[in-house]
């Protein structure tokens, strides 16, 4: 069963206030317990080079050493979680996303976003290594490849767990799962489930409820149908060759999964946002001209706006400006402390990527200070 309509991006819980361009940090965010904070993880993708010229050394499951190539001593960075080159999708899922899925099934909101330069492993983490086979149940795969669905990314594993929960429920008909999937490309919003022209972002006059006019929503009880739609949507993403990566994605992809559960006490609704951000590299690295350069500028505008929000939040600012980009307007609810958020920052270990790796580690370090501040306040 499918229907289309106006994608109600906000779950209605809203965040902060103020239609004036800024929103006040909700007081609940300041008083949340440690559990409610932003979790920051760093994942190092496997090296693709035979030599051992690396700029990263893993110290523990929370710390790594980064060598900037100068005479300075390598610097230690500490995060909530550090996943080394041999980490599995299962491990990353269990640690970062599975706890959020439990919350969503209990009627809370949660968000996961993958950050990092092109080629650092964001799409691998979010979708998986082999999108063609992603989501195929082991029983439907030939025996030799039956292990391959262990490689499914966070989006597929989260949907899997949600549908398993619904199927195992005493009365599955009490559940409704709805997905929408969009991309932001050059500051334009496109529907990935029903690709067409750009869609408008709308906000109610209190700036609380964000909707994407005309965004399709698919309501389904079938795990298979929803995963097929996700993979089809991913194919519709804007992929353009750049010098950094032949199939790099120049767009931010945002998947929203809403779970409604009718209970005797009323309807519980939880929402999970899963975001595969566009590459965070500087425009000059991609050696682009013209159209590609303009894309770079827009991508940086969105990620810069995201960075500014993260900086403001980590500095304890009372007002945070989410209005500078479509990405931050859509992620406002996730960032402002009303929902649990996990950022998985991705880095490449090879020394030749050390500039981008450093930028990502610093970005993630700033994000980590939001979590520290919230934890101290909790
Ligand atoms: P991004 O989305 O950040 O541009 P990709 O996810 O496309 O990067 O990863 C770039 C390449 O590295 C792909 O070929 C991908 O399969 C591989 N890769 C990335 N992360 C991992 C990982 N954790 N394990 C194995 N291969 C990976
Ligand atoms: Mg990608």
What report would you give on this structure?
There is one protein chain. This protein is globular. The chain contains 8 helices and 18 strands. It is 30% helix and 25% strand. It is of the alpha+beta class and 378 residues long. Helix 4 runs antiparallel to helix 5 and helix 6 packs parallel to helix 7. The relative contact order is 0.24. Strand 6 and strand 7 form a beta hairpin. Strands 1, 4, 8, 9, 10, 11, 14, 15, 16 and 18 form a 10-stranded mixed sheet that branches. Bound molecules: adenosine-5'-diphosphate (ADP) and magnesium ion. Magnesium ion (MG) binds next to helix 3. Magnesium ion binds next to helix 3. It is found in: Cytoplasm, Cytoskeleton. This is Kinesin motor domain-containing protein. Belongs to the TRAFAC class myosin-kinesin ATPase superfamily. Kinesin family. Keywords: ATP-binding, Coiled coil, Cytoplasm, Cytoskeleton, Microtubule, Motor protein, Nucleotide-binding. One of its GO terms (biological process) is microtubule-based movement.
Contiguous low-pLDDT stretches (5 residues minimum) are 11-36, 138-148
Distance between the termini: 43 Å
Largest sheet: 10 strands, mixed
Number of helices: 8
What is the beta-strand fraction? Answer: 15-25%
**Helical residue percent band:** 25-40%
Shape: globular
Average pLDDT figure: 79
Oligomer: single chain
How many strands in all? 18
What hetero molecules are in the model? adenosine-5'-diphosphate, magnesium ion
> Helix/strand-derived class?
alpha+beta
Q: What is Rg? A: 20 Å
**Helix and strand run:** EEEHEEEEEHEHHEEEEEHEEHEHEH
Keywords: ATP-binding, Coiled coil, Cytoplasm, Cytoskeleton, Microtubule, Motor protein, Nucleotide-binding
Biased composition (Polar residues): 24-33
Domain Kinesin motor: 37-370
Main location: cytoplasm
């Amino acid at each position: 069963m499918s229907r289309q309509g106006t994608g109600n991006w906000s779950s209605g819980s809203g965040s902060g206030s103020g239609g004036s361009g800024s929103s006040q940090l909700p007081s609940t965010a300041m008083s949340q317990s440690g559990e409610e904070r932003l979790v920051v993880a760093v994942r190092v993708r496997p090296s693709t080079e035979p030599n051992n010229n690396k700029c990263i050394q893993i110290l523990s499951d929370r710390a790594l050493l980064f060598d900037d190539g100068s005479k300075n001593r390598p610097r230690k960075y500490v995060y909530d979680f550090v996943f080394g080159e041999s980490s599995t999708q299962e491990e990353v899922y269990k640690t970062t996303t599975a706890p959020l899925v439990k919350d969503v099934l209990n009627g809370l909101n949660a968000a996961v976003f993958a950050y990092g330069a092109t080629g650092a492993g964001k799409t691998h983490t979010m979708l998986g290594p082999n999108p063609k086979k992603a989501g195929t149940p082991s029983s439907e795969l030939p025996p030799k490849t039956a292990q391959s669905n262990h490689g499914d990314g966070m989006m597929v594993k989260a949907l899997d767990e949600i549908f398993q929960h619904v199927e195992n429920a005493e009365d599955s008909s009490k559940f409704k799962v709805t997905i929408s999937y969009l991309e932001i490309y050059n500051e334009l919003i496109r529907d990935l489930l029903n690709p067409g022209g750009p869609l408008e972002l709308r906000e109610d006059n209190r700036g609380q409820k964000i909707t994407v006019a005309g965004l399709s929503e698919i309501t389904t009880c079938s795990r298979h149908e929803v995963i097929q739609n996700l993979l089809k949507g991913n194919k519709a993403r804007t992929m353009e060759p750049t010098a950094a990566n032949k199939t790099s994605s120049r767009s931010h992809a945002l998947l929203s999964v809403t779970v409604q559960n009718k209970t005797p006490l009323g309807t519980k609704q939880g929402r999970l946002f899963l975001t595969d951000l566009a590459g965070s590299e500087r425009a000059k690295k991609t050696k682009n001209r013209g159209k590609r350069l303009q894309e770079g500028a827009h991508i940086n505008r969105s990620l810069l706006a995201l960075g500014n929000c993260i900086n403001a939040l980590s500095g304890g600012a009372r007002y945070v400006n989410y209005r500078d980009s479509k990405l931050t307007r859509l992620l406002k609810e996730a960032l402002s402390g009303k929902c649990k958020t996990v950022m998985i920052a991705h880095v490449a270990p090879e020394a030749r990527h050390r500039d981008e790796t450093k930028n990502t580690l610093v970005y993630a370090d700033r994000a980590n200070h939001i979590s520290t501040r919230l934890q101290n306040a909790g």
